[in-house]
Amino acid sequence: MSVDDLGPITERLAALDEPIRHWQAARERAFAAKFTPKQGKLSTLMGRLPTAAAATAGVGPGPREQVFALLDEICDLYARSDTSRCAIIRGLVHQHEAHLLLGEYMGNAARMLGSGGRSVWLERGIAALSIDDQRRDYRDWLLSLGDLYLAGIKAKLDPAPVLLRIAERSNRERHRAAPTATRDVLEGFEQSAYFGTTILPHFKQ
Description:
10 helices, single chain, mainly alpha, about 200 residues
């Protein structure tokens, strides 16, 4: 399996690169316009954040809907693929601007589950985590994993089999930005210290 075999997906990812870049640049300009100057007391800067965030949201959704629709297909394909094909898919996504929206996509998957969405959203969300491979801040990545796990429980699903199935397809090598390989994190999530301190207490409420 090569990148060429994923030609249609590659073309669609490439077609979204420029729209995503323009949208992200507009969001950054809107944020900066409300958040500058960056000097001053921390309390003053923090007070500007809601206004800056609102300005960013005011730019509009941009190509988010198209990106999410494509990520739906990519995550579904990823969950059905073998490890070598999954490695190709991960590399392919990270060559394009769509990877910048993986974090938002995970959050959307958790929201869909939490609002009664189909069980496929759990698999899509975990697949997106695997594709992301902790290349953004691994702490944010771990929070997204926790959110998806809890959303799955709320939807009366058992996340464990999905975690193990996607773990088998995940990167065995530790990314330089992460302390632990993605495969190991997904595989051992329910035995992790994070699970014990942050997720388990929700079951006791």
